[in-house]
Amino acid sequence: MPKVSHKGSNMPESPIRKLVPYSEIAKKKGHKVYHLNIGQPDIRTPEVAMNSIKNLDIKVLEYSHSAGFESYRNKLSQYYKNHGLPIDVADIIITTGGSEALLFAMGSTMDVDDEIIIPEPFYANYNGFSTASGVKVVPVISTIETGFALPPIADFEKLITAKTKAILICNPGNPTGYLYSKEEMMQLAELVKKYDLFLIADEVYREFTYDGDTHYSVMNIPGIEENAIMIDSVSKRYSMCGARIGCIVSKNKEVMATAMKFAQARLSPPTFAQIASEAALDTPQSYFDEVISEYRERRDILIAELNKIDGVKVAKPKGAFYCIAQLPIDNADKFAQWLLESFDYNGETVMVAPAAGFYSTPGVGLNEVRIAYVLKKEDLIKSVHILKEALQVYNS
């Protein structure tokens, strides 16, 4: 019998989606499941984006340019400049989601067996993209004790070898919600300059910052124009996860010319979704003000409720819409499955994402879960109450 590839065998399962069969079982039993496990916002997509595709009169659904529609790239460049990011049209290639932008970034900067250093816990699919690219993830651990702040630069430096090609960060972070300060970004800039590395910054949650903290982009750092690669997406900003539109951005001409070859090989990003994404750039500021205010309230309620549970430790997120909570359990995988398979509180239960899947160091994060605060406030309060009851039953 023919065998699947080593690469395919090593491809990690999604820690977020692998519990789906158990949630389906819970729902078949008639239980209501509160989904704290996935970053799918319940915020409405801006009307201006939806209307742009409702009334289209297209006779032929054509390919776009491999780099994406020029009109979209022009408008996107202007959007970035309005937000203080010096990004020109030539610095942008539109991709099928931020996922493809990351694959293009890895494909353009790394060969098989090269190494990429990533502070963990990190977005679980970085493991998948690295496996698909034949690249080795070298993790540097950040901890709940520091709120998942940037690990000391000496910890990065110890890990740099002749094979190291890049450092990848998510800012603000999924799954931690940590927002890197300007000082932390400057430390990373010095490091990549010193060792001639790329600094890849996944900035898809840029808008989602709270408490008056401002986001400092990799594209704003002077002197690392050749090192900096930014990953962006419309998924979270406009609550358009299903559009699958993102972009790779860099001032490095060689990187962009190389990424363009990958873009040509997949022909073009989706047409309808680009039209909607271009229109989304006209979303009024009032939309974002409301969204940020809503997420700040959700975060505050979630953290306050979690802090009421004995034995639970949580790092207060500064951005994005996730937090990591440490629970008084041994194994979050087993607990998350048990919540769906064997537990309900008045016919209701919760689905969480075990955090071990967001680490690549074996045995780390076993008692942690990622919680996404993408539900209504009353649902978050209910969810945490269910979690509290569940922990008592589980531990007895």
Shape: globular
Taking the alpha carbons of the first and last residues, their distance comes to: 48 Å
Count the helices. How many?
13
User: What ranges have pLDDT less than 50 throughout 5 or more consecutive residues?
Assistant: none
Please identify the structural class as seen in this structure: alpha/beta
Task: Report the portion of residues in β strands.
Answer: 15-25%
In short:
The chain is globular. Helices cover 38% and strands 15% of the residues. It contains 13 helices and 13 strands.
Can you put this structure into words, describing what you see?
The chain starts with 5 loop residues before the first helix and ends with a helix. The chain has 396 residues and is α/β, with parallel strands linked by helices. It is 38% helix and 15% strand. 46% of the residues are buried. The strands form 3 sheets. The protein has a 7-stranded mixed beta sheet, sandwiched between helices. It has a 4-stranded antiparallel beta sheet with strand order 9-10-13-12. Strands 1-11 form a two-stranded parallel sheet. The radius of gyration is 21 Å and the shape is globular. It has 13 helices and 13 strands.
